[in-house]
Amino acid sequence: MIAVLTAMQLADEGLFEDPNTTGNPSLDPLYAGGHGPTSPSVDVIIGDRRNGYVNSAIRNKLASESGQPGKHILVER
Question: Phi, psi at residue 31, to the nearest 5°?
Answer without folding.
Answer: -100, 5
